[in-house]
Amino acid sequence: MTNRHRLARTLLASALLATLAAPMQAHSSEAASEQRQPQFQFDIPSQPLLDALGEFTATTGIAVLRTTEEQLAGQAPAVRGRYTADQAMGLLLQGSGLSFRHGAGSITLERPSGDGTLDLSQIDISASGQQSAFGPVSGYVATAAGTATKTDTPIIETPQSISVVTRDQITDIHAQSLRDVLGYTAGVIATEADDRLTDTFVLRGFQISGSTFRDGMRYMSNIYDGTQEPYGMERVEVLRGASSVLFGQAAPGGIINVVSKLPTREELHEIKAETGSNDRHQLATDHGGALTDTLSYRFTALQRKSDTTTDHVPDDRTYIAPSLTWQPDDATSLTLLASYQKSRTAYVYGLPAEGTVLPNPNGHISRHTFTGEPGYDKSVITAWDIGYRFEHAFNDDLKVRQNLRYFESENDMPSVWLDSFIDPQMTTVARGAQDRVDDSRNFVVDTQLEARFHHQRVEQTVLAGVDYGDRHLQTDRYDYDLTPLNVFNPVYGGTFTARGPAPFSSRNRTRQSGIYLQDQIKFDEKWVLLLGGRQDWAKQKEDALYGNDRSRQDSDAFTTRVGLVYLADNGLAPFVSYSESFEPQAGRSRAGQDFDPTEGEQYEIGIRYQPPGSNALYSAALYQLTRSNVLTTDPVNTNFQVQTGEIRSRGLELEAKADIGSNASVTASYAYTQAEVTKSNSGNEGQKTGGMPRNMFSVWGDYRFGQVGPGELRAGTGVRYVDEVPGLFSTRIVAPSYTLVDAMLGYAMGPWDLTLNVTNLTDEDYLSYTYAAFYGAERQVTAGVAYRW
């Protein structure tokens, strides 16, 4: 253990022991008053203000104490969507000259001169729970997130960069994959442009294929277990930088956490049908509501049949996700969640560099080219999971939570792979084929104890937790030789010649356990100090299915995090933080010793701005992120490796999200990333790392025009720019820069909603490069009709 880690452990233990020794006190009335208000679903058309206030009361159950009717003359704007009572009232009173204040179960309207009031009859309030970091958000701006701290924490009080993509944004941009969901998020890029099989990304210069989570827990066991369905997502949170303190082993680039749709006591019903390019047909439905006083439910399902840009590659899916919440009282809740997903597509191996990113005397290879064998290549993934979320509050200051999930997947994935051109004319490539079946399982459980402490000038939230994960993967493969293929004029029906069991056929198991402790300390409502530490233990074993090769490796790591935020009265919140991560590293040195885990270390400084009275959040961050213990060539014997390599990433990220009044929403981002090899014996020191562009920029805006004819019209458009990208595994090959334009039109008439979405409006021919070239999706036009009640 390094001196730095010993010092961090000592400081962390001292701070947390002092915290735990303090007596618990009841919540102060000021703390209770600061709780976020519940949200309501409003559907108030533009009408006289007096009538609009009546609909407000009918929707919220909150009585309005008003001035005389003559003073309430005028027209109120339409208010539609999910808002708190304060937000909705502010929108209704725009231009009226009125302000408002809260009373006991009521809202009182006032003029600056102080007119009298008239009491309306009051309606009993049936209050729903407060907005949660794990629940729905109206619009594009989430003000709280749970991924960074595993507690319900305002983003502006979090000393590490985090982005949230809300359900409304996912719907507006018509995201059809996690890759699409994150298309307008700063510094995130998919490793393959139009990959229908995996959710793999590069974040802050580092590949994070093993760092995709669901509801705060590691989800799949293998990157080929399938992609997550966006229709089942309530929100997606991206925590940037080294983040092992709460999650255990993870890539230094960060964490992507998908939050599931959960049961709701508010009635929610939707049926949506879509049709579009590539013979796409989809039917989806989403329902929720209260079953009894203690039970509520959610049922989400989808059926899709579609082709894709690449010939002979489908994008078919069946998705079913039921969930049920039992809440016998305000202190206890148990939510059962399950999902079933069956996807049929094919693994697209990619195309040669010559003819895509590099010149070829025969021109460009078509983006529609399929290099496999129709009827042979496929990927049929059957996956399901089941789990629960339990929470019990012993009192206002002490609660326990446990989240548990079991996941299982089978992927029947026979596929064709390509080798280099074998003719001087550069038209024909060598091919091989492989039968492959992957079976994987993943069990995870995370138990947390959260305690709140109240002192005269200090508020603290202490989180102690223990988690455990057990992942299994068996991959069974068999190789064939296969007839070569002309990629400019493919003729299928090649001959397969058996070769034998593939050497990568194996049975793998990884078990990881960890304990963590975190303290969020708020001083004088101005300063927020975050301290965290975690100890992990990991055991890995791998046995060859064909042969006697086997390996065993045990590793452990201690990681820390510390951050500080200052909360200014004008909405500014500068922050600074230090965080760590680790990943087990397979293999042995020349001396026969197991390799140590790679380590990530991040220094970050940033600032957020949340203008008072607005629904907007702006952020900027500078960071340095270093990965050490990287494998590089052993200078004594080049047949072995040593852990003296290092990769460093430095960058700037800017992000803005704003809901402007009741009519407009916008999200914009920019990322500058400089990632390079800083230490290496392999001759690549000073070179850029692959898979990450130097510059990325995006902006999406949505505007609601209001009443046009019998319904309401809205429109949205977005632009995404990606700088040239060095190849992920071969940085000498660089994919060119590209710009994508997306657009949306919507028209709502009562419960009906008509939509038209176009992605890649200009039909840009773009691609990425990993070990081969992968084209992005062509222009996709989709028309949809939804009925909601």
Automatic annotation (TrEMBL):
Residues 1-28 form the signal peptide. It is a multi-pass membrane protein. It is found in: Cell outer membrane. SUPFAM superfamilies: Porins. InterPro entries: Beta-barrel_TonB (IPR000531), Beta-barrel_TonB_sf (IPR036942), Plug_dom (IPR012910), Plug_dom_sf (IPR037066), Secretin/TonB_short_N (IPR011662), TonB-dep_rcpt-like (IPR039426), TonB_sidphr_rcpt (IPR010105). Its main location: membrane. Belongs to the TonB-dependent receptor family. This is Ferric siderophore receptor. The gene is bfrF_1.
